[in-house]
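Q: what does this look like with 2-keto-D-gluconic acid bound?
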Amino acid sequence: MPARPALLIPRKLSPAVLERARRDYDVILNEDDHVFSPDELVAACQGVDAVLPCHSERFDAATIAALPDRLRIIANHSVGVDHVDLAAAAARGITVTNTPDVLSDATAEIAILCMLGAARRGSEGDRMVREGRWNFWSPAFMVGRQVTGRRFGVLGMGRVGQVTAERARGFGMEVHYHNRTRLPDHLEKGAVFHDTVEGLLQVSDVLSLHCPATPQTTGIINARTIALLPERAILVNTARGALVDEAALIAALASGRLFAAGLDVFRDEPGGNAGLAALDNVFLLPHIGSATFETRDAMGFRALDNLDAFFADRTPVDRLV
Ligand code: 8YV
């Protein structure tokens, strides 16, 4: 193992994370913080032992095949790893890690913001006041849906799902969930388990997505599954845009079949979806679920912990491959 491994950091991480990285590694930075093209990514990986990417760097099979033999570990600064072809990395003997746990609180906060912003018409109201168009008030004005006491459905009861459920309980919401495996009592905390996605959707006044994007979950929210939700339900997505068929979502929002949606993630990022942006009943954020000062530090430190373990010949705690 090199005494000071060469580490590529393709995006601008927090100052504290960079300081620690520079203390222990020969750091190569992408100074202007642009997203590397696939060719630039492969070129930047030449001559490094490790890379610490975000979800914005795609390590698909072709990119992984073109990586130099010297590169031994992809230590992601993200919990989601759908941007990395894990099978291709495994085939080349490249270790892959992620950063679970440390972003659960921040992401749950954004999920609740999305829920409330959607239910109480946050975007519409904000724009009206900001643009000087607020010239009328009435008890019949800007009436939204109250979430207190409603059923909160969690699709994917992992760490972020569990924290979000806990926050929803604070609003007196009744938590329902679907997960590949049922949680033990101390984690379930009285939430109602549904052994099918369909069963969960039928009772979700608010449905919040917290599962990873995989071939099995891509497009899991589509015209058929939206039709299972209660009338005027609310969809919240802080996980991955790929989970949702956005054309079907637009149709359901435009017709009023869904009351509203609160979305932090989109199929196309950065950018989003112009069709969704054209609707009043959508509360939109630009993928900032984990974007707090505290969590950015914690994610970077966790990724560095994984690198430190790897280069000390220990198994990183968050090793996926
Ligand atoms: C991050 C995320 O903003 O962790 C994830 O999977 O999508 C977000 O928390 C991003 O990946 C930062 O690197």
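Residues 54-55, 77-80, 103, 289-290 surround 2-keto-D-gluconic acid (CB under 6 Å). The mean pLDDT is 98.
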